[in-house]
Amino acid sequence: MDYHKLGIAFCIGLKQEARILAKILRSHGFEVVSVVCKNGGTAKSFLGISEEDKVRPGQFEAMCNPISQAKLLNHAGVDFNIVVGLCVGHDSLFFKYADAPTTVLVAKDRILAHNPAGALYCADGYFKTRMFP
Fold it and tell me: For 11-24, how does the pLDDT look when each residue is reduced to its tens digit (9 = 90+)?
Protein backbone atom coordinates (compact mmCIF):
# COMPACT_ATOMS: atom_id res chain seq x y z
CA MET A 1 0.00 0.00 0.00
CA ASP A 2 3.09 2.19 -0.02
CA TYR A 3 2.54 3.54 3.51
CA HIS A 4 5.55 5.25 5.08
CA LYS A 5 4.24 7.26 8.02
CA LEU A 6 2.05 5.44 10.53
CA GLY A 7 0.00 6.94 13.35
CA ILE A 8 -0.69 5.24 16.66
CA ALA A 9 -3.66 6.51 18.68
CA PHE A 10 -3.40 4.88 22.09
CA CYS A 11 -4.93 4.78 25.53
CA ILE A 12 -2.60 5.87 28.31
CA GLY A 13 -3.36 2.53 30.01
CA LEU A 14 -1.65 0.77 27.11
CA LYS A 15 1.36 3.08 26.77
CA GLN A 16 3.83 0.21 27.12
CA GLU A 17 2.10 -1.77 24.39
CA ALA A 18 2.08 1.31 22.13
CA ARG A 19 5.79 1.85 22.83
CA ILE A 20 6.59 -1.73 21.84
CA LEU A 21 4.46 -1.45 18.68
CA ALA A 22 6.21 1.77 17.68
CA LYS A 23 9.60 0.13 18.21
CA ILE A 24 8.61 -2.83 16.02
CA LEU A 25 7.25 -0.61 13.26
CA ARG A 26 10.35 1.62 13.29
CA SER A 27 12.59 -1.45 13.07
CA HIS A 28 10.80 -2.24 9.80
CA GLY A 29 11.52 1.20 8.36
CA PHE A 30 8.28 3.03 9.13
CA GLU A 31 8.13 6.55 10.48
CA VAL A 32 5.81 6.49 13.51
CA VAL A 33 3.82 9.28 15.11
CA SER A 34 1.89 8.49 18.28
CA VAL A 35 -0.69 10.41 20.30
CA VAL A 36 -1.94 9.50 23.77
CA CYS A 37 -5.63 9.77 24.65
CA LYS A 38 -5.00 12.37 27.38
CA ASN A 39 -3.30 14.81 24.95
CA GLY A 40 -3.91 18.45 25.76
CA GLY A 41 -4.24 17.76 29.48
CA THR A 42 -7.72 19.28 29.76
CA ALA A 43 -9.10 18.80 33.25
CA LYS A 44 -12.30 16.79 33.64
CA SER A 45 -13.68 19.71 35.65
CA PHE A 46 -13.77 21.67 32.36
CA LEU A 47 -16.88 19.61 31.52
CA GLY A 48 -18.30 19.97 35.00
CA ILE A 49 -17.31 16.52 36.21
CA SER A 50 -17.45 16.63 40.01
CA GLU A 51 -14.72 15.41 42.33
CA GLU A 52 -16.79 12.44 43.53
CA ASP A 53 -17.27 11.28 39.93
CA LYS A 54 -13.54 11.20 39.22
CA VAL A 55 -11.46 8.01 39.38
CA ARG A 56 -9.17 9.62 41.99
CA PRO A 57 -11.08 12.39 43.80
CA GLY A 58 -8.90 15.26 44.92
CA GLN A 59 -6.33 14.71 42.19
CA PHE A 60 -5.95 16.25 38.75
CA GLU A 61 -7.44 14.08 36.03
CA ALA A 62 -7.20 14.88 32.36
CA MET A 63 -10.02 13.79 30.09
CA CYS A 64 -9.52 11.79 26.93
CA ASN A 65 -9.51 13.67 23.65
CA PRO A 66 -9.96 11.28 20.70
CA ILE A 67 -10.91 14.08 18.29
CA SER A 68 -7.64 15.83 19.03
CA GLN A 69 -5.78 12.53 18.60
CA ALA A 70 -7.22 12.25 15.09
CA LYS A 71 -6.54 15.88 14.23
CA LEU A 72 -2.94 15.70 15.46
CA LEU A 73 -2.29 12.60 13.35
CA ASN A 74 -4.00 14.29 10.39
CA HIS A 75 -1.71 17.30 10.87
CA ALA A 76 1.31 14.98 10.99
CA GLY A 77 0.29 13.64 7.58
CA VAL A 78 0.15 9.97 8.47
CA ASP A 79 -0.70 7.46 5.76
CA PHE A 80 -2.37 4.93 8.05
CA ASN A 81 -3.56 4.85 11.69
CA ILE A 82 -3.43 2.05 14.24
CA VAL A 83 -5.67 2.21 17.32
CA VAL A 84 -4.35 0.68 20.54
CA GLY A 85 -6.99 0.33 23.24
CA LEU A 86 -9.19 3.40 22.83
CA CYS A 87 -12.45 3.25 24.78
CA VAL A 88 -15.65 2.32 22.98
CA GLY A 89 -17.11 5.60 21.77
CA HIS A 90 -13.72 7.28 21.83
CA ASP A 91 -12.66 4.95 19.02
CA SER A 92 -15.77 5.95 17.05
CA LEU A 93 -14.93 9.63 17.40
CA PHE A 94 -11.36 8.93 16.34
CA PHE A 95 -12.57 7.07 13.21
CA LYS A 96 -14.94 9.92 12.35
CA TYR A 97 -12.25 12.60 12.45
CA ALA A 98 -9.24 10.68 11.11
CA ASP A 99 -8.37 11.42 7.50
CA ALA A 100 -6.21 8.32 6.95
CA PRO A 101 -7.51 4.75 6.90
CA THR A 102 -7.55 3.23 10.38
CA THR A 103 -7.41 -0.24 11.90
CA VAL A 104 -7.68 -1.52 15.45
CA LEU A 105 -4.78 -3.60 16.75
CA VAL A 106 -5.92 -3.77 20.39
CA ALA A 107 -9.56 -3.60 21.50
CA LYS A 108 -9.85 -2.35 25.06
CA ASP A 109 -11.13 -5.04 27.41
CA ARG A 110 -9.55 -4.89 30.84
CA ILE A 111 -11.50 -7.90 32.13
CA LEU A 112 -10.21 -10.23 29.41
CA ALA A 113 -6.68 -8.84 29.00
CA HIS A 114 -7.73 -6.86 25.89
CA ASN A 115 -9.06 -9.99 24.20
CA PRO A 116 -12.83 -9.46 23.93
CA ALA A 117 -13.13 -12.56 21.76
CA GLY A 118 -12.27 -14.52 24.92
CA ALA A 119 -15.87 -14.06 26.10
CA LEU A 120 -17.09 -15.62 22.85
CA TYR A 121 -14.71 -18.55 23.23
CA CYS A 122 -16.07 -19.12 26.74
CA ALA A 123 -19.76 -18.44 25.90
CA ASP A 124 -20.72 -22.11 26.27
CA GLY A 125 -18.63 -22.56 29.41
CA TYR A 126 -17.49 -20.11 32.07
CA PHE A 127 -19.43 -17.12 30.72
CA LYS A 128 -22.61 -19.05 29.81
CA THR A 129 -24.67 -17.73 32.74
CA ARG A 130 -23.43 -14.18 32.13
CA MET A 131 -24.01 -14.24 28.39
CA PHE A 132 -27.39 -16.00 28.47
CA PRO A 133 -29.11 -15.05 31.75
Answer: 999 999 999 999 99
List 33's β-bridge partners, or say none.
7
Please state the φ and ψ torsions of residue 31, each to the nearest 5 degrees. Answer: -85, 135
The answer to whether residue 101 sits within a structural domain is yes
Q: Report how far residue 22's alpha carbon sits from residue 63's, in angstroms, rounded to the nearest whole number.
A: 24
Q: What CATH number has the domain bearing residue 92?
A: 3.40.50
DSSP secondary structure of 92-124: HHHHHH-SS-EEEEE---TTTTT-THHHHHTTT
Residues near 52 by beta carbon (within 8 Å), at least 6 away in sequence: none
User: 68 is in which domain, residue-wise?
Assistant: 5-108
pLDDT cut 90: percent of the chain above it:
67
Q: pTM of the predicted model, to two decimals?
A: 0.87
Residue 123 included in any domain: no
Domains: count for the chain: 1
